[in-house]
What we know:
Layout (H helix, E strand, L loop, with lengths): L3 E2 L3 E3 L2 E3 L6 E6 L4 E7 L3 H20 L2 H16 L2 H11 L4 H22 L7 E3 L2 E7 L2 E5 L5 H15 L2 E5 L6 H13 L6 E3 L4 H9 L6 E5 L2 H12 L4 E5 L5 E4 L5 H13 L11 E5 L3 H13 L19 H13 L4 E4 L16 E4 L6 H4 L6 E7 L2 H8 L4 E2 L2 E4 L2 H10 L6 E2 L13 E2 L2 E2 L4 H6 L2 E7 L1
Parallel strand pairs: 1-5, 8-9, 8-11, 9-10, 11-12, 13-14, 13-19, 14-17, 16-17, 19-20
Antiparallel strand pairs: 2-3, 4-5, 6-7, 7-23, 12-22, 15-16, 18-21
Bound molecules: nicotinamide-adenine-dinucleotide.
Amino acid sequence: MTSVFRxxxxxxxxxxxxxxxxxxxxxxxxxxxVFGHVxxxxxxxxxxxxxxxxxxxDGWASASPAERGAALGHLHQALAARAGEIxxxxxxELGTPLKVAKxxxxxxxxxxxxxxxxxxxxxxxxxxxxNSLVVHEPAGVVGAITPWNYPLxxxxxxxxxxxxxxxxxxxxxxxxxxxxxxxxxxxxxxxGLPAGVLNLVTGTGPVVGAAIAGHPDVDLVSFTGSTAxxxxxxxxxADRIAKVSLELGGKSANVILADAxxxxxxxxxxxxxxxxxxxxxxxxxxxxxxxxxxxEAVELAAKTAAGYTLGDPFDPATRLGPLASAGQxxxxxxxxxxxxxxxxxxxxxxAPLPDTGHFVAPTVFADVDxxxxxAQEEIFGPVLSIIPFGDDDEAVAIANNxxxxxxxxxxxxxxxxxxxxxxxxxGAVDVNGGAFNPFAPFGGYKQSGIGxxxxxxxxxxxxxxxxxxx
Length: 470
Ligand code: NAD
């Protein structure tokens, strides 16, 4: 496969040379070879991009919702024409198996973007409350900072909503997976998005990310990433009281009640925990099982994990790709090494691995202490912890014993499972395998974040509300 060298940034509707000649290399985590690079942007590049976004802000805000919807429709069309390239690019820079990459890394953002092309019409909805006319206005210039695990989806969830709301955007994608972002900007250029409405500055977090978060002319910072970085971004924005929305980490519980369909709950649960090699913020990494089925669940989870085929993301037989980087692999291995009090039932550090690539074998621990590091920390790798419980109250208490509150699942008879779902302190819960809905609000309680993305709730994050009294 060919190398991908991107030498420019996208600012003010044009491809422009970066301020510095420094570059960031992009590695294929399966072959462990560098196959591309992008510019390492600087604070000066951020200044130019924010200034372009500011100049474009009034024009884009005053475009009619129908015009903005049409522009997003054209962007969607241009991006959809690149669906195959998107899946392959993410397969190479992240290591997602191609089949999953096609469905999730390419298909999901396309669905989300087409949704925002339609939702743009709702951005100007008005409401009357007594003598007040309540109008919604764009929040202004948005700084968007995104991670590497679902790189295009996380970008589109922000960019689609912000543009639909009438905001202009400066994006900094993750330095680990920047190449797929370029495909969005190729599409934006081809679609003729007005100059300055969408700008790209690639670079590192401490340089470009920090410059965006702390920029006096950025009205809203929309961040997805780790809780630690989210805290730093919040601090930077707090100095000027800028609005911040945060999509952060998770440690979600999959609660399997006494009357659940055990086989389905365990199999779907293992698949969820290991999706994208466990590098998924909503992954159900804690499997909570009623004692009456506990031994059976442990055996089934171990067997399911052991059946995964690891290997080349481009081989159709591969179920589990490598982790995104050597650093991520070492971090995950560290959690497994320190997990001495739990019972290892699948995978572990001695399991066989492919010859190349940053792999960790799908690993399952049983009898995990709910207060231990394994059950409390976001591991972000293919590591599942199984924990027994005695009754529904105990299951809820264990599930909520987390500083995170992003997602979760409950399996059992419908009314009982729904009752438990209502008691979980998380932004989303899937009952009996309910499918992910890309138009439903997505976000976290507690340290999993502030605000919501996707659908109409996601659009509202990028708006200000004004009351006009008559
Ligand atoms: P990260 O926090 O290391 O980086 C995220 C982004 O922030 C990157 O673009 C990075 O360059 C940038 N950044 C780093 N330091 C910065 C700074 N000081 N100022 C501004 N920006 C900075 O996260 P990651 O490792 O890329 O992604 C994994 C994390 O993201 C996990 O914790 C995962 O749970 C979380 N995540 C959350 C969601 C969600 O929607 N809740 C979705 C996906 C991932």
